[in-house]
Amino acid sequence: MNATEKVRRRLERAAAALDGAGVPYAVVGANAVAIHVARVGETLVRNTRDVDILVRRADFPKPQAALESAGFVYPNVAGLDVFLDGPDSKAGDGVHLLFADEKVRDDALSANPSVYDSERAASVMAVSLEALVRLKLTAFRDKDPTHIRDLIGVGLVDLTWVPRLPPPLAARLTALLDDPNG
Fold it and tell me: CB of 90 within 8 A of CB of 84?
């Protein structure tokens, strides 16, 4: 089994455990980008090595129990809630939990979306496209503009999005639209 298949299976296993336990969640990050891009063209999807899932902080014991019952191992690594895919796994290959309706950092432009700002996408709940774009424009780490460019490249995001965003996020999107090749 190749690395891409391992990530897909890890995502599906985590989602099945959360669904089975009745835990509200949404897939975010590169896997959410891949889900939306794949709707336009599967061959256009960029691979990732980890799984990012949004949950409510108040629910934490439920996703923790669900993921552990599916074979994931929980350590808090450098302040991050990570579920390793077995005891010998690395944090970069795990399931990372993010918390809905909270800012990742105090200086973040906006909070993470709600777990309910999501939609069923095959076997998982994925954050909506609009929430994903806001999340990526807020985080704006090195990889986030690339993910936004992927969404632009397949026609899911364009100039019509700019007026829907608060000014700082609109400025970031405008810059990416003005220079789509980086």
Answer: yes
Fold observed for domain 3-128: Beta Polymerase; domain 2 (3.30.460)
Between CA 21 and CA 7 the distance in angstroms is: 21
C-alpha distances in Å from residue 29, one per residue of 15, 35, 46, 71 = 14, 10, 12, 22
Question: pTM for this one?
Answer: 0.93
Q: Domain segments of the chain: what residues?
A: 3-128
Residue 147's nearest CA partner among 25, 31, 8 is 31
Report the relative pairing of strands 51-55 and 26-28 from DSSP bridges.
Answer: antiparallel
pLDDT tens, residue by residue, 58-79: 999 999 999 999 999 998 777 7
Q: Are 152 and 121 in contact (CB under 8 A)?
A: no
